[in-house]
């Protein structure tokens, strides 16, 4: 039985959204409108991979460059839409040969390059579900996600396999096939992707996937428990495509660069799917961040639309405007940001340094696509996330004692007065809305009340309806744009023999927004020392990778709730120097 809930709203219901506020907008999220731009499968149904690849193959875009992949050393590999058609067909045929069933999960643990795109789009065209993992994850987060998602196939590099997967391979009995890239002899227990693809035909006909069939599985973090696998369906492509049109101003002639990794939802919705559905040229840069390298990429590739994140912008801002001015950024037309609050100074810096103010956008793994933004044609209000996109209905809900929306029975109260902080909520029904947390219907049900999806964010609205971000209503950490669940970090720390208990919070940081800080109580008999601290940092780093704590302090008296849980909010209040009694003000303090 499916554990996600397909939404079958009529087009009329969707079209009845608040379009009247947007007289300049031609399209809404409805399938009828999207049909003018997207095509749908010839025999009915809808498939993300088909819209991103096949649809271009009988047009003049066939031989246009779809991808320009720049590797770490600056070497560029190009793929046309026709190349993508052939290579993804081989991959789809390979999945067939491996006996993968429609809807089964294919995991990717790959650096950003052609193989990632071919595997991702091949999986979608085949009708299997795609789950890209962040290559900076350590073995533990990787194992946990593949296990939770019932991964059937994993595609990775030999290096990532040896370092991250081999240590946990025997704890993943359900994972049937590991395909590795490159032409060297594959490590034991894996097979060569290249050899597999070479043996397959470069023709594949996309199956008639239903718009409500599972297409994507993205993991996100909550306050408690294991990571949550948000299920997205093929219909999401309608929102990917149209939101990119409104919020990122994407058009077929654009050269688009999304700096996000597909392991984060941004890097899939806007780093793979949306841009290719627009038939444009996508720049993919596998290199590490460096201000010079990034400006060089913008200049050399003549990027016209750029989607990035506040942490990166703040790192560029350290150079003032002078570094940017050394580069020819004349091709640039539109710059947008996502993932964390965008400081007003960053918006102004964009105008000075890049020649364009930065357009903030707000959304979540669960929403699948941009929901609120300072979109094209709208006056930017620096510091505000903007207005809801056409077809998106937003509310702010009155809060109860726990800081989240107050739910009485199944009713909630909306806040109509400007400037009042409430929990940000969305009316379900947009096409990219998540249809469940895999294997966790209760957690999914817990996200809804009174007919609203509760985002877990706190915000307010001004007189004109612009939404202003205030903070998270829970303990989830946002570091450099990435959500980190404190529970996952605490659990790993507690596996170390010296640790009795751990509490993990986000400590405000001027560049990354927050960094992960752990408070640790040692077991009796273990003395606090720098050696133990360094050992713990290394232990966590090895297991968790990029989500490991950057800072660990010892605390023999962690505060607890009556039910015995570590009170992260109190740890945070202390960290911020706030009065401990007044926890309700915490969210607005950073
Ligand atoms: C796409 C993505 C979602 C959380 C979200 C909020 C924070 C996202 C933001 C923002 C302030 C913005 N967030 N955009 N905060 N201003 N423009 O980021 O998905 O990783 O699931 O994170 O990110 O707290 O609830 P995800």
Automatic annotation (TrEMBL):
It comes from the Bacteria. Its EC number is 6.2.1.1. GO terms for molecular function: acetate-CoA ligase activity; ATP binding. InterPro entries: AMP-bd_C, AMP-bd_C_sf, AMP-binding_CS, AMP-dep_synth/lig_dom, ANL_N_sf. One of its GO terms (cellular component) is cytosol. Coiled coil: none annotated. SUPFAM superfamilies: Acetyl-CoA synthetase-like. The keyword Lyase does not apply. Keywords: Acetylation, ATP-binding, Ligase, Nucleotide-binding. Residues 60-438 form the AMP-dependent synthetase/ligase domain. NCBIfam families: PRK04319.1. This is acetate--CoA ligase. It comes from Krasilnikovia cinnamomea.
